[in-house]
Amino acid sequence: MSKLRNNHPEAPDAARAPDGAATGTAGGASASPDGDTAIPEDSAILESAWPVLLEMAAPLYIAAPDGRVIFSNAAFDTALGPTLLTDGGRLPRTLTRRIGRARETVRQTERVSGERLAQTRTFEGLHRTVPGPDGRVRALIGTFTEVTRTREAIANVRALRGRFEEILSTVSDWVWEVDADWTFTSSSTRDDGVLGFDPVSVLGRNFFDLGQVGVNPKVPKQRLLKASRRAPFEAVLYVIAADTPDERMFEISGIPSFDEDTGNFAGFHGSARDVTQEIAADRRARDYRAELEAALAQLRAKNTELNAALERAKAADQAKNQFLAMVGHELRTPLNAVIGFSEIMDQELFGPLGDERYDAYVDDVLASSRHLLGVINDIIDVVKLELNELRLRPDGIAVARLLETCAAFVREKAAREGIDLQVKAPADLPELIADPQKVRQMLVNLLTNAVKFTGAGGRITVAAGLRGAEMAIWVADTGIGIAQDQQADVLQPFKQADGTLSRNAEGLGIGLPLTAQLAQAHGGRLTLESTPGTGTTVTVHLPLEPAAGRAET
């Protein structure tokens, strides 16, 4: 035990023991429990035990009012004396003043540094004054309790709590607790940029007043969360600031807690995940799906209408084609009789007609009848092509001879119109395998058109040549030409480049379309190049081998 300070000779009695502990009663002996005088040895026992008790106690000191320590035990001298006391064995002046002015116990923590950081120790000191009979401060006393491990445990708990909150922040947007009345008692400290509101602001508010509880559409047959709930719940839809620009939706889950001693319900603790954007996207997707389904239904209805209209159009087109075929056949039979009788009259097989004017009339009737028959035959061919009823009869064709034959059909008329007609075909052209009658019909149509739209002094050239595996036969003229925006029309049946009622050229406008269709029937094609005021070139491209699609067997 520390000795009394040399500058305090009056301290032995005070330092030895509490009042009467060392000296016993006034007579030198203590009273026994049954009233008899105590054995003198009891005082001696107390006298000898008191120093040992002080050595076993926690660090403590007794100081004069000015902070000079007049007594301290070994625990204080070893642990705190070297750090706490100043030169001359005094308490720090600030601590002395604080104790002297305080009316209650003064608490102050002292840190005692070791050689290494891990050896630093922490003590919590309790200091107070000892008043004298007159009320003035007679002494200062203090005891210390080491709280090193307690502080370390608190620091560890805080660090653990921080790590726990960090972990929770990675798996959940919001961690919360409510008491038995569903009042928020704890809320995670995530910033309001994540949640849309300050998490701490919910403390003290009722769970069901803060937000609206709904059924999560992603969880089938989910029960509505109520305040009477005592079982865990999961993925409940919780909406805060509903129907406002700040609306936030959460999938919230909770676990009940119960008092360990009484077993009474103590509240819920749980977490929540922000699903605002997710649900908004889901709603947009459902709206888009509904719009798409509605549009699809409209498209189906339109498609049904179009199919019905197409069927009606096909039926009407087929009826039209059948009608044209029937009319063509009905017209061709009497027309052939007219042509036959006209030819008999023209040849005067049964004698002269008499008046010379009859000869001219017969020539006009015969020419008109043959023209009309050609038109009817063209119409019938168009109908057969559309009905896929045209059958080809392929045979070998000498192309140069074919060109001369076809040119002969229009040469006389071209000469009357003052048009120069030229035929150009190499003598070594290979034989073309195609339907001779249909190829002749195509060339006559092209030559007839060329004569029709070429004026006096113009030139028409019919020629042929090999272009790869195809035979190209073309008719070029220096006529009026066809405008670019009308070239597609002239390849449609019953259309002409001049569509007005005042056009000068005769015909139904089926020559080029029929030629194009006949070329396609042979597996070929038709091309047209034309410049208004310069002329037109129409080329028929035919494969050297016959097409099998419409060939007659």
TrEMBL record:
What the entry lists under PROSITE patterns is as follows: HIS_KIN
Taxonomic source organism: Rhodovibrio sodomensis
Compositionally biased spans, kind Low complexity: 14-38
What residues does the Histidine kinase domain cover?
326-546
Q: What is this protein called?
A: histidine kinase
UniProtKB keywords: Coiled coil, Kinase, Phosphoprotein, Transferase
Q: What EC designation does it have?
A: 2.7.13.3
Q: Where is this region: Disordered?
A: 1-39
